[in-house]
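for the writeup, i need someone to sanity check this before i put it in the appendix. the sequnce is what the collaborator sent (i think, or maybe the updated version? ugh). structure was predicted straight from it, no edits. if anything looks off just tell me and ill rerun, i have time this weekend
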Amino acid sequence: MEKFYTDLAQELEKLHEQHLFRELKSVTGAPAEWVEMKGKRLLNLSSNNYLGIAGHPMLKTAAIQAVQQLGCSATAARLIVGNYELYDQVEKDLAQFKNTEAALMFNSGYSANVGIITALAGRGDIIISDKTNHASIIDGIRLSGAELLLYKHADMADLERCLKKAEGYRSKLIVTDSVFSMDGDLAPLPKIIELKEKYGAVLMIDEAHGSGIFGENGRGLAEFYGVSDRVEINMGTLGKAFGCSGAYVAGRQVLIDYLRNKARSFIFTTGLPPAVVASVQAAIQIVQQENWRRKEVLTKAAWVRDELVKAGFNLLNSESQIIPILVGDNAATLEFSSRLFDVNILVMAIRPPTVPLNAARLRLTVMATHSNEELAWAVKYLKHIGQELAII
């Protein structure tokens, strides 16, 4: 028995030596532009609360009312007795928002991707995935039993190579993030769609970081590019721009009926709490009604990117509210984050395996509700500390 614990301790020690050990950091108070951590008040540049609505009064009111009326739990899987009328209505709202026939909620983005992929692909099928897709997509592919081909990040020539190599399989599924969570760049959806139609593949996109932000109605990057009706499987999360929790998949009715019957992470999971589902309903309204929020977040992010590029930082190919500052070395990245913390700015260090080896970075995220003055102040310190550490 002691050997078991000794082996664990040795593995943890290796993480320490490689500057890869992680620990939880507790935040005091509600999520907002400023947070309190370890007794310090910090400008929050690490949240996925892009539109700044996680604490919106409409979300709070909806959640409280749902608790009062329905209690704190769904009490069972939704196919048993865990499906209130509210849940059916919110899925209709999601489908209307995404301009699709139907939608289905999952408890998280991770469970959605694992459930969707394992339901739609198996032995005899092949999945073609962008090399930098989210871990939940990677794990879903592994669990599916389907063959996997990885194409170089956003490289359409390599995607076509993979599609040619995939001939002969029962079905071909292409999976890609729309906005990449660690690079902040955009998938070239029009070209991907052109190739998937040329080679008879099906496309699944993960709009976790695009939904609520891109497109005239905030429906995501597919709307932004005008290709929504050519995407078979449109998945997204509700815990980022929507400020709530959970995830969804939207598409044709036959797809949603199939997933309701085949996606194990949906079938065998207690439904989301009523308070969460009610807050999602309110968030859908806010995203549509308060379109100034997505305009603000993209405008402000563009200004920050421009300032940091002029200063000499490597932001990879960021085109979104997610702005990576590439450092490379794990220890240097941690030091950069620590010095920002010392001056009351919260920007987390992202290290392998979340990103590739020697590609550690700061991941800076902008919210619609950050003031111009706050962002200018943060940029000033980013430049100053970057120069001190010889990153620029």
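DSSP finds 14 helices and 13 strands in the chain. Residues 25-53+291-388 form a domain with the Aspartate Aminotransferase, domain 1 fold (CATH 3.90.1150.10).
thx in advance!!
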